[in-house]
Design a protein that fits this description.
By secondary structure, chain A is an alpha/beta fold. Chain A contains 21 helices and 18 strands.
């Protein structure tokens, strides 16, 4: 058995089902092994950021890692931005990066670079394989490390000769450690705080945003009166009618301060102490009121849901009843405002949809309307590295072929990994992209104004505007093999969105804002 | 003066004229300074690899650095692949990367990452600025370091508060060290070898591929009978009628061995001891015959041209006469073969064209025909990180607005940084892209066959084929604002290439192979 075969066999035996790949010469033995060993689907991305973002989306939906297969340092570097998002999402993800043959490294051939140096900043674990004999074991260890709670990005480099040489053996993937339960004393301490009935808020993240976590959190809120907030950017949150709704912590610090105003105790539940996305002059990094105290019910790697349930029980909270039925929004009509855009998606998205939200400044109204939509999962941009949306939609669609994926996508961000559209077409994925075409890096225009640059000069204007020339997203999508249409009114958006959601395969609706 | 203003003023005073930018919130004070300080052109790329590749192309043509302006670790990471190519090309290039405000870093906000760790592998010099007061001096030092012979990539991180704070002062950019002359004894030693008249070859790289370098090398060859070879991938080479032609060292080791067969002494002139691009079983990394000896006339950072001239004088070589006139190829007709593709470009390219060659497996015949074309500069893929061509064409066009740029581009490679087409349209650049649409990663199919996988399975086939679906490059180009046409015969290629070369502004011809 070659080293390459031992890697693929070990991964398949360890539950890895999909490889998002953009391989090169140094990965050809692994590609050959993907053919000789059954059990792993290979999905081509035409740019590496597509592969890493897809692996992130896949794991957010499946709770287990996909593999990426990337070419040497520069190919891997192209995937780093979405690995940054995966890192912030605590996504289990296994990167396999080919390297030159061990004996060829010293020659410093043109493609040689410090792969481990590049991998470190975005990986929780990095290993350089050095022989075919140890490649199975290295692979098993990589998978286990990726799954250690709360999950994380790992990177294994594999020299070409270790792939093609004989001597490989399959290794068993050890189960990851179970999530550590939260100590009863910690639960009781938080319960004691909540029993005082002073203004408190729970900030929910990670596992707390699963349906089970949200239901337990809602029991706590009902019994104690504490407020429920979710992280500003969640790796995954369950939303919609019948699922307890929580308030998302706003993005800008002024609004976040408002959301947290009056809170005497902030309780972290699978979330970090919230900080401002950027530093602004005179604004502290921490968002919680200075006079508030902080409690940690559960860290993100702990049994967050169990802790919430124990807390609810400690407070004597009732089991959840049926949630109040929100009034479903009605299909919008008229001009294509952001409110109408959000309403159209919220009204039409089917049960069980996966909404990948990288709509940025175009997404605001949808966020509030989504609570009244049919139950769905929402995946957000966790690390701020734009260009996550379309690739993550690819991965989510491959993870859940029975669910409709809606990529709610800003135009500026979408451009970074636009090649993802081709993979949607090749794999016939049920991804409906709603492309918000406002033809600007609007957030930068807002940030510049916030910083006092209210009369932007030509360079600021030029560097924040996506026109001229106008990006013709319909032409681009068709160029990648995805049927597309451009809409300029709410009525047309509703008409075409209804149509494409009833069809199989990918499509793109360019919503001109 | 703010720190940001001191950075821009220092750079402008130091001769930096262009900033290729994809900024974010942490770079907004620098964008504001680009407006308040005159003298630096700001060019937007919709993906960071466009910016770094453009800065590489600019400097290859101008011999001085452009600046990039990139957003934090993930944005910078998107530019790394083309920085790898720039590093291999010894290109002077100054990256400016914004970072969080110094006091905000400890908050570990979502976009925080180890920027210096990411920068190290692709930079010759990295510095983290820490105050507005020192930002001018840090900028001056960055520019000087980038220009130290033979030139290189430097990265300066600048926290947002150091940009917006007052206290900046302009620093003078010290001139870089002059290129060190090669010792007379070294020249004499090589001359003595050549006087023995045993089979010898000079491998030319860097400055040796300028017109002056090539002319001196041709004198040496005429006087000594030694063969002239150029590196497989040159940062820049002057070619065409009237310029001494050299043989490019082939890519595959078998062919490289053949080109070097019989050589008793290999003389390196601004080039490295040649090694195989990849390691193959049973093939040594070094390409030179094992029994040959090695001489180094000049290292890439030394005065390479001066050394060649001194060597020619030591050999009593005549001053160059007029070169033999090669027979110009005639306009091809018939099917669109690779030979016809190459001939069409060689025949029609105007005097002084800049050919950016990332045609990969589609480019072979052109390389031989180019010696008979009108004099031109050719820029190649130096580091093997594909996706260099279109961005480098952007930079070359901005560097030399009076010269026509021809991007001779493979389809697989072109996809990595396809967003460069938009910048060509926005800046109305005279870039003619000839897109070689063979709808495959052909090199990988060849490499797999070389490795013995002659009956590829479905996964190898799928991971090396760019169809289905077919990428419609004409639609893609139009989507980015670049007029485009698809051609399927040599006659149509000639017709449309002739037409677009007579027009201003960008265009794309999709050559279906």
């Amino acid at each position: 058995m070659t080293g390459a075969e031992s890697l693929v066999r070990t991964a398949v035996d360890g539950g890895v089902e999909v490889c998002f790949a953009n391989p090169g010469t140094t990965e050809m033995p692994l590609v050959t092994a993907l053919d000789s060993v059954p059990g792993m689907r290979a999905v081509l991305g035409l740019f590496e950021g597509v592969c890493t973002g897809a692996a992130d989306g896949y794991a957010r939906m499946r709770g287990k890692p996909a593999m990426t297969l990337l070419h040497l340092g520069p190919g891997f570097a192209n995937g780093l931005a979405n690995l940054h998002n995966a890192r912030r999402a605590n996504t289990p993800l296994v990167n396999v990066v080919g390297d030159h043959a061990t004996w060829h490294l010293a020659a410093d051939a043109p493609l040689t670079s410090d792969i481990a140096g590049l991998a470190g900043p975005m990986s929780r674990w990095v290993r350089a394989n050095t022989s075919a004999e140890t490649l199975g074991a290295d692979t098993a260890e990589a998978i286990r490390r990726s799954l250690e709670p709360p999950g994380g990005v790992v990177t294994l480099t594999v020299p070409a000769d270790c792939q093609w040489s004989e001597g490989g053996s399959v290794a068993r993937v050890a189960g990851p450690s179970p999530r550590r339960p939260v100590a009863a004393a910690t639960v009781e301490q938080v319960a004691a705080v909540l029993r005082r009935k002073q203004p408190a808020a729970m900030l929910l993240g990670g596992q707390a945003l699963t349906r089970g976590g949200l239901e337990a959190a809602a029991r706590v809120a009902a019994a104690s009166g504490c407020r429920l907030l979710s992280e500003t950017f969640s790796a995954r949150i369950e939303r919609g009618v019948g699922i307890p709704a929580v308030t998302r912590l706003p993005y800008f610090p002024e609004q976040a301060h408002e959301a947290l105003a009056g809170v005497r105790t902030l309780i972290l539940v699978g979330a970090k102490d919230p900080v401002s996305f950027f530093g602004y002059p005179g604004v502290p990094s921490r968002l919680a009121p200075a006079e508030s105290s902080l409690e940690i019910l559960a860290k993100v790697e702990e049994d967050v849901t169990g802790a919430l349930e124990a807390l609810a029980d400690a407070l004597g909270a009732a089991k959840p009843g049926s949630s109040a039925t929100l009034e479903a929004p009605s299909a919008p009509t008229g001009p294509l405002t952001l409110a109408n855009l959000g309403a159209a998606i919220a009204v039409l998205q089917p049960e069980g949809a996966i909404v990948v939200d990288e709509a940025a400044t175009s997404g605001g109204p949808y966020g509030s309307l989504a609570a009244a939509a049919k139950p769905h999962s929402c995946l957000m941009l966790t690390g701020g590295a734009i260009g996550q949306g379309l690739p993550t939609a690819v991965g989510a669609a491959i993870a859940c072929p029975d669910r409709r994926v809606i990529a709610f996508q800003a135009d500026g961000s979408g451009m970074y990994t636009v090649q993802a559209l081709w993979t949607m077409a090749r794999e016939s994925l049920d991804v409906t992209t709603v492309l918000c075409s406002n033809r600007a890096y609007r957030i930068l225009q807002i940030e510049a104004a916030r910083a006092g640059n209210v009369e932007p000069g030509p360079k600021l204007r030029g560097l924040t505007a996506l026109e001229p020339p106008v990006l013709d997203w319909s032409a681009l999508a068709r160029g990648f093999g995805v049927p597309a249409v451009k809409v300029e009114s709410a009525d047309d958006l509703v008409k075409h969105l209804r149509r494409v959601l009833a069809e199989r395969g990918p499509s793109l609706i360019e919503a001109v804002l």
